[in-house]
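Can you give me the bound-state structure? Components:
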Amino acid sequence: MNPLRTFIVGIAPDHVPGLIAAILLPIGILVARRLRPPHSGQDERKKDRTAIQVWVAWLLGISAVIHLALPLGHSDNWLLTVGFLADGAAFAWLAVRAWEGRSYRLLGGLLCGATILAYLLVAGTGKEDPDQVGIVTAMVELFALGLCLVPGRTPERPKRFKRFASSTATILIVFIAGAWIWIGSFLSHAAANTDARSPESAAGSVAGSGHDHGHDHAARAQAGVIMRPGSEQQPTVEQVKAADELARATRVAMARYARLDDAIKAGFVLPAVAHGPDVHMDNKANASDGRVLDPERPEKLVYAIDGGKATLLGVVFMMERAGVPGPEPAGSITRWHAHNICVSVLPPGFTIVSAYGTCPPLSITVTSAEMMHVWVVENPGGWFAEGLDRNWALDYNAQHGLPVDQGAGQ
Amino acid sequence: MPGSQRGGLADVVYVICLMQASFLALAGVGEVLMMGGNGAYLIVPLVKAATLVWLAAKVVRLRRWALITLIVLQALTLAAIPVQFVIGLAPVVDFSPSLVELVTGIFVPMAVIAMSALLIGERRRALQAPPNVEPTFELTLAREAAR
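Here's the bound-state model for the whole set.
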């Protein structure tokens, strides 16, 4: 996917009205202030308003309009609609209070805390795919919560303990919320795969390929995984046939790499850590040969290597250029994904982008080319599952693995 | 908006820095997990997070050097964006920022730079105020810092 498409995919269609409302808020405020007649009492209040009150008013206002607009995208559930409207109205009321210089800290802190908790219960437990608008809204509320929690410092009353305690709480809450959303995005991803597992898929049928999702899962948190939205339509007979053909051709072609040593001789390179349930071996020649989705020349092989045994589990087909979408001969069954990763220099290493879209210091963020797994062993997820269960892969290797020559896979 | 009251702009910068420290800690923990539990990957994120919190505490006291150092740190964060864009021109990788990345990588650092610059200006004005003027919050802080 190109960068613009990737950006758009990160925003759940249900949440677009909320995002538009947040963007329109400053314009609405500007128009309202122009239309309002001059009032001397307002000017007096403005003098008394502190920077924190202004920021809190804006942050609560943004959260208010987002929640008030969300029912436009979630109109199918009346209970959710009532909840969003009540939450939005409460945020708006507190935003006005903060703007007018009245007390807001206690109620604002409680409302922000409760809303963040509700979001984490839904998005952090895999029930909903966290998306960019949801995460940004949570960040806005976390910021408002921090401003409500941390008391302002005055030279005559430094409130050292209170500031230390509330600052520590702010750091911890932001950390825990981010970690929870991050875990939730992976749980949602795993749930999408589990949903698709059917008795047919257990037998290795492409119909239960791990991509035939009951709901659209697109890894919209974009915290490590970037996906194209899946098609709502069921695969056609032709697409199922095409998927079957691709899986069969790959199995037949890869039979020659059943032994790890044969793969090494053919130019596949073991990584530094050549041990575990999913050891990926690159082939540089295949990666730059200009061929796409060629069962004879996959860009990577995936082995389980453990206890002196190795099993070829599958292959990874990878596009040569990042940003270029991979072909989908079998529609939503053959679904590609990419990874947004952080490459750090001190110490050299890599990780995936966090739920807050951040990387460690001294690192850069890049998005890989699209890739797709095709498994050559029958597994519970099907031929096109995005990943295999770690324990399942190790057990399979223990039962079916072939001995590894000395020096390889140790 | 007078900055001479409790709850000034410096407190807003303070809370943003706390959030940025959390972001760094989370990214660092993620890298430790990805690199097989190697704790060495947590050193740089935690050092930067601690530096941010320390600078934030000094910013609230309107220390000029802290405001300038914070501006430099945020500018370095912003400088990563064009670097990533150039690297993204290579065929094998792409630079595709998400909405959240734009907020944390561009909007937040720019907001901190703007507010820090405003605070430096406020501090200068407070120090230049004639001595018979009733001491305000910023003036008290600025005089404290100047001492």
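A couple of observations. Strands of chain A lie at 226-227, 276-282, 300-306, 309-318, 337-338, 340-345, 348-352, 363-368, 371-375, 402-403. Chain A is about 45% helix and 15% strand.
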